[in-house]
Amino acid sequence: MTKKLMPILLVLALVLSACGSKTGDKNNESAKKDEKPTTITYQSENGPVEVPADPQRIVVLSFSYSGSVLALGGNIVGIDAWSKANPRFEDGLKNAEVVTDENLEKIIELEPDLIIGQADTKNVDKLKKIAPTVTITYGKNDYLTQHIEIGKLLNKEREATEWVENFKKEAAAAGEEIKAKIGADATVSVIENQDKQLFVFGENFARGTEILYQEMKLNMPEKVKQDVLKPGFYAISPEVLADYAGDYVIFSKNSDGDTSFQQTETYKNIPAVKNNRVFEVNAKEFYFNDPITLEYQLDFFKKSFLGE
User: Fold this and answer.
1) Dist CA 211 CA 204 (whole Å)
2) Which residues form the signal peptide (predicted)?
3) Is 13 exposed, middle or buried (0-12, 13-18, 19+ CB in 10 A)?
4) What pLDDT score was predicted for residue 195?
5) Among 136, 169, 168, residue whose Cα is nearest residue 154
6) Where are the beta strands (DSSP E) in the chain?
7) What is the pLDDT of residue 25?
């Protein structure tokens, strides 16, 4: 190799080295941009909480939030008894253990990386030592904002918001169809039997009430407005059911409870009963107001009112 050629090769090597270095830097920067954070900071009602960006093992101590977690693809390993008994949640909870806020040892064994409870959850300080724990006051947000809040917690706010927007449009459209069929002035009641007691529900106590009254803008009977709207639910005896029954009645039925009132002449003479306008549904599938339940309720109303 000649002496004249050596400086040229040296310069070329330096240039290639610099280019390689820049390319490597760019690749590293690109890789960093593609990396997902392992944790996020969730702004809870009690202050910021560092939670997993993609939680893998979630314990939910309240039925108020279990359906939202399932709808967003969360893997629930520990759950409350009411959620476990919901047939709509059966597939998503088949491997989940029933736990309470007092089953600390059992929760430890489940090795959760996120725990979700309500504001009145017990042993929160102890639960925080097991995994990041977030408590949410039920009713602080409306039923749809509540789902978005769970979306924020699970780092899936976009998915939750899109679902809410689509659901509101679908429910409103169904409401217009139903009003066109039953009449704009027709009234609808929602009742449920528990043990030997009957309850009537207002506009925000699950059982499909949010859909019927908030999204579809259907009417309540006057007696329901007077006695039920403010408290949200109201206990009545079967003898006065006729006073609260609308032109149509949604009966959230606990088949293991007392349903003997349905055999009485008082019940059979209610106009909605005589006109075959009582729509019965399994209460255990109808209790909640999460996306899974809401979609089921909306489908039930379409089939019941419209025959779809």
Assistant:
1) 9
2) 1-23
3) exposed
4) 84
5) 136
6) 39-44, 47-52, 58-60, 76-79, 97-98, 114-118, 133-136, 188-194, 197-201, 233-236, 248-253, 278-282
7) 52
Please say whether the beta carbons of 188 and 145 come within 8 A. Answer: no
Exposed/middle/buried for residue 290 (C-beta within 10 Å: 0-12, 13-18, 19+)? buried
State both tokens at 164.
């809410």
Q: Is 215 helix (H, G, I), strand (E, B) or coil?
A: helix
* DSSP bridge pairs for 200: 191, 234
Asked if residues 81 and 98 have their Cβ atoms less than 8 Å apart, the reply is yes
Q: Classify 191 as helix, strand or coil.
A: strand
Which helix H or strand E contains 70, and what residues bound it? helix 63-71
pLDDT along the chain (308 residues), means of 10: 46 48 50 67 96 98 97 98 96 97 98 97 98 95 96 98 98 98 97 93 96 98 96 95 98 93 96 98 95 98 93
Four-residue CA torsion sign, 289, 292, 294, 299: negative
- For residue 252, CA distances in Å to 60, 181, 244, 284, 287 come to 25, 23, 15, 8, 8
Domains plus CATH for the chain?
39-155 (3.40.50.1980), 172-306 (3.40.50.1980)
Half-sphere exposure of 211 (CA within 13 A, CB side): 29
